[in-house]
Amino acid sequence: MKHNWLKIAVGLKALPPNPQELYEFVEYADREHILAQVAYSHSMHKEDISSIKPVCADADALVIKFDNAWIRAAYDQRMLMFESDRVERALAHYNIQPTLLKGGAYVIAGHRAGQGRRVSDLDIMVADGELSQVEKALIMAGWQGDETVDNDYDQAYYRKWMHELPPMRHQRRRTLIDVHHRLTPKTARIELAHEKMIEAAVKIEGRQIRVLAPTDRFLHAAYHAFYDGELDTPARSLIEIYYLFDDLTQKEIIHLLARARDIGAEKPLFMALQILAEYFDHSKANDLLKAFALLTGVQIPLSSKVIFWLVKTQMSSNAFSSMAKLFLYIRGHWMRMPFFMLLKHLSMKAFRKPTKQLPKNFLENDLFG
Amino acid sequence: MLKSDIDKYLGQGRLVLSIGDFSARLKSSCASVGVHLHDVYRDYRFVKFDHQLHDQFLDVRPPNLLRDLMKKQIIPDPGFQFPAVPLPASMGALAFEMGLNISVALKTYNRLILHAGAVANDKGGVIISAASGGGKSTLTALLMQEGFRLLSDEFGIIELNDHTLLPYPRPVSLKNASIDVIREVAGDEWISAVIKDGPKGDIAYRRARSDDIARAYETAVPRLIIFPKFEKGAVAAISKVASADTVMRLIASSTNYQIIGKDAFRAVNHIAKQAQAYEVTYGSSADALSLFRTIAEGTVL
Amino acid sequence: MLAGPSQQDTVWCADKACCVIEPHEEAWYVYHTLSGETHLLNFLSYEVLKLLFDTPLDAEAIAEHVRIGLDFDIEDCPLSLIRQTIQELDIAGFIRPSDKVKFSNA
């Protein structure tokens, strides 16, 4: 990846005029599943992605690429909107308002970070005390423990140590939901104050659903990207952090550090600011970093330098990147669980078959030439 | 393009094959793929890859180095994760056709893709929708002899704005007994060498004609939908299929209906109402053809 | 499987804007824009859905309207059949309990 590609991805820079770089950029965006987001940020009319700014001789072919990506992402978003609707329906009469997290929240709130975003499952958070009722209601409505985690080891692991129920899959629609009751696992070295964040969550107009307040949403995204072992699609995570940060009001920016301290997200905040300065040249992020340096009592966490290096290594696809990826994964888990448990978990994971599969009937519908 | 250039660019992954509105970047180190392109794709347009954006990508390559050393095998790699079954290196043609099909089926969302054969004449298009082994390729190849041009033997591609059929004329794949049936009517010079003992038996390709390829930009209004059903020794029969049933069958045959959503819904309903649909049960290709003629006489075609 | 809790006297409503309808002989294909799913409705489920587009109603009121609209008597169209249809439409996401429901912490 070229250093300025993330800026292109969010529309801070024009699409590359040079055919070779345009080709490489489009291939990269496709691989990283951000092509529809690129389409969105380079459309003149946001409702019509066919109206991209003409950039090169290949503009027609680019519109087709964008169109395909946009239709694919729209499918994900439709699924997610309906799933959130189904959760609401399943919980009708219980007076429980779940908080949507991550992609689901951006999509339902109509946030820029959600436009064209690929999403695969729904994440919701409910209070500890509501958890068993929510699980029961979802089971009544057709969700059940997913086959991939339907074994004693995984069930026990999730229930004892994790911040979410084992993933549940809907029997008819085959969609996945993660039900959280905390934002960080019980074993995590960084703990987010999820109660405070739930308290500040904002209700979606006309719905029985909430999303995190803008500042908390940004801080959670930063935590999730750098401390949750989830940097599989780094471009997507970093774009998300950019949009969530860029849309904060001046007032929210002023209170950002205080809020990060309050909920225990100082390190993720610091990481995110470094990334925003490095890849997006974001002036407000630069200002905040300078302010941090001047403040006494704020220590630049040493570990963040290591993570920063790892993220950068992974962003540039060189020979080290797959190692860095593994390291980030282990590190993400290391942040979340004690060492011996980590070893046990990794070895259990290593011995099980990969679960990503095409639908069963796909190969029957054979496409032999 | 010169044969030697095709081989060179294919090896470097710098070969682009254009078919109507679609283009594919191709790469292969496998000799049998080059042979297939020289033979079955001899009338198609190839250009050198120069960073032009393309619709499909396909690399026909060994599954991994170790396996390659032990046993000459190849897989089609469409550039995204796909569980392909390794084939002997001599079956480059099959790996190529399969890989390109997978790529079209799974990477196209801006048009509705039906798993069906399609032909057209000046009055309109015919969609031939059948499960594997139902005889859609055979019937497609037979109709090419009846004054129809080839749109595709594998994909009925529907434009979402006007619900017309978009041609994608690739070679028609023929299996087992149908190879000789088509050889008989089309002539030996139109049939490729036979690949023996493939995963589904013998396979050969009936080349697209220059006219099929040249008219790949001309869309056709679907007028007739045939659901062929091959049953050994069956008594030939035609039955009309109601529009609601047609919608259901078309949806079931699509690889991207769910992903497209509303526009695909409008397209299948419009096509099912505008076209006439018949189920054709047959026990021999002679039956199939005479039944088709009966239907064609009674309709706009 | 249920879509979620409801009561005997739940008042149901449906949003016409979420439905793209294509009539065929004696059957209706309905594309639900919210779920992206395509459903094939028979005359009874279509009649119930159509009723709820206009007015929120409970099961008994729906049954009454359907019997009048389709000229059925009670044996042709018992309340149990209506309840089953409601349940199917609810699972598909076409209809939902109207907002004026009381919360219970049952």
Task: List descriptors.
heterotrimer; A: 369 residues; alpha+beta; Beta Polymerase, domain 2; seven-stranded mixed β-sheet; two-stranded antiparallel ribbon; 17 helices; 9 strands; globular; C: 106 residues; three-stranded antiparallel β-sheet; 3 helices; 36% helix; disordered C terminus
Give an account of the 3D structure.
The complex is a heterotrimer of chains A (369), B (301) and C (106). Chain A is an alpha+beta fold. Chain A has one domain (5-353): Beta Polymerase, domain 2 (2-Layer Sandwich). Chain A is 54% helix and 8% strand. In chain A, strands 5-6-7-4-3-9-8 form a seven-stranded mixed beta sheet. Chain A has a two-stranded antiparallel ribbon with strand order 1-2. The longest helix of chain A is centred in the N-terminal third of the chain and has 32 residues, at 59-90. Chain B has two domains: 3-107, no CATH class; 111-298, no CATH class. Helix content of chain B is 36%, strand content 30%. Chain B has helices at residues 3-12, 31-40, 65-70, 92-107, 136-144, 177-186, 210-214, 243-253, 257-260, 262-274, 285-298; strands spanning 15-19, 22-28, 45-48, 56-61, 73-77, 87-88, 111-115, 117-121, 124-128, 149-152, 155-159, 165-166, 172-175, 195-198, 201-206, 222-230, 237-240, 276-282. In chain B, α2 packs across α4 (92-107) and α8 packs across α10. The longest helix of chain B has 16 residues, at 92-107. Chain C has a domain at 11-16 and 42-97. In chain C, 36% of the residues lie in helices and 25% in strands. In chain C, a hairpin with a 4-residue loop joins β3 and β4. Chain C is globular, with a radius of gyration of 14 Å. Chains in contact: A-B, A-C, B-C. At the A-B interface, α2 and α4 of A face α4 and α9 of B.
What is the gist of this entry?
The complex is a heterotrimer of chains A (369), B (301) and C (106). With 369 residues, chain A is of the alpha+beta class. Chain A is built from 17 helices and 9 strands.
